[in-house]
Write a structure and sequence with these properties.
heterodimer, A: 94 residues, B: 8 helices
Chain lengths: 94, 242
């Protein structure tokens, strides 16, 4: 019984969420990749996915805000060992 | 060097030149062959040609360059009577996805060059540094110019990130930064007859994602008795000893 009530609660939650989304102009809801949560909460409309093949070319100088065109490289720690003026010295240091 | 390679993921090992001969020791007795073999075993990444290397003459020096497991560089040495550079002027090495361009500069010296002509290192640096800077994230000048001359060069020429120099007047206490350009300038040792090849400079930097280099630490490390001899190196050198 408890499980049945939860199930109906989830279904109604989805219906209400969907209705709210339609009301604020989200259009046809797209499948969400994020994990479903049973709570009902107003969410921002998701951007409509655009296929890269259909995308119009845009100047490289105007990137989409918040979207980086190239992945940021990781910084590295480099050790530079250097020697000078050895003049043919090969005597072991031991 | 083996220890450093075990402790650090990315390492560059560089020598400023005047390395193969000049101390009256095993290097001289073998005309540089023993030192080339030793440096190849250690795993040097690049070396600049110095006046002492030029004293070997073009044929013998070319042979040593072929024996070496690392490039010997000079952007300002030509065969006498020609405009032809004797050695590669630069090399690009990659570490961790970043490209490091190295320019070799030779100190002009009278009387030690036979069959060579040493051109103005500053002019050569201006040309090759600017070309290299278009291809790599970090530009390193490797030179046996005296420390003060190398420091002035570092401050004068744009796009240099690091200068590794030679012949300081004293064992340096820190890495210095050229005031105008911001280039780092380091050298490891102050040589004198009987006291050479005894110190290694260890510079630690962070290379940022935008290609800038930040100094973390520098020290001149003495190759003293606390560091064990390498058995492979002993065996190699024994082959050259009489």
């Amino acid at each position: 019984m408890g499980k049945t009530r939860i199930r109906y609660g989830l279904i109604w939650g989805m219906v209400i969420w969907w209705t709210v989304s339609l009301a604020v102009g989200c259009g046809t809801p797209e499948p969400r990749r994020s994990t479903f949560t049973p709570e009902v909460a107003p969410v921002s409309p998701l951007p409509t996915p655009t296929s890269a093949a259909n995308r119009e070319p845009t100047p490289a100088a105007t990137p989409t805000p918040g979207v980086t065109s190239e992945p940021q490289r990781e910084a590295i720690r480099l050790v530079v060992l250097h020697t000078n003026d050895n003049w043919g010295e090969t005597v072991p240091c031991g | 060097m083996s220890q450093q390679r075990q402790e650090a993921e990315y390492v560059l090992l560089l020598d400023t030149g005047d390395a193969l001969v000049g101390g009256g020791l095993l290097g001289d007795r073998t005309q540089g062959q023993a030192v080339v073999a030793a440096m190849s075993l250690i795993g040097y990444d690049a070396m600049a040609l110095g006046p002492k290397e030029l004293s070997l003459g073009p044929d013998l020096l070319r042979q040593r360059m072929q024996e070496a497991g690392f490039p010997m560089l000079s952007a300002n040495v030509v065969l006498r009577g020609t405009e032809e550079l004797f050695a590669p002027p630069t090399v690009v090495l990659e570490r961790g996805g970043y490209r490091f361009g190295i320019v070799g500069l030779t100190r002009p010296a009278d009387g030690s060059a036979s069959g060579f002509e040493v051109r103005d290192p500053v002019q050569a640096a201006m040309r090759y540094v600017s070309e290299l800077a278009k291809q790599v994230e970090i530009v390193i000048v490797l030179t046996n110019l005296e420390y003060q001359a190398a420091f002035e060069l570092a401050d004068r020429i744009p796009d240099i990130d690091l200068v590794i120099a030679a012949l300081p007047k004293a064992i340096p206490q820190q890495a210095l930064q050229a005031p105008q350009s911001g280039a780092l300038v380091v050298t490891a040792d102050q040589p004198s007859p009987g006291h050479t090849g005894r110190r290694v400079g260890r510079l630690v930097v962070t290379v940022e994602g935008d290609g800038r280099m930040r100094l973390e630490a520098w020290q001149s490390v003495a190759m003293d008795g606390t560091i064990a001899d390498d058995p492979q190196m002993d065996e190699l050198l024994d082959r050259f000893r009489p």
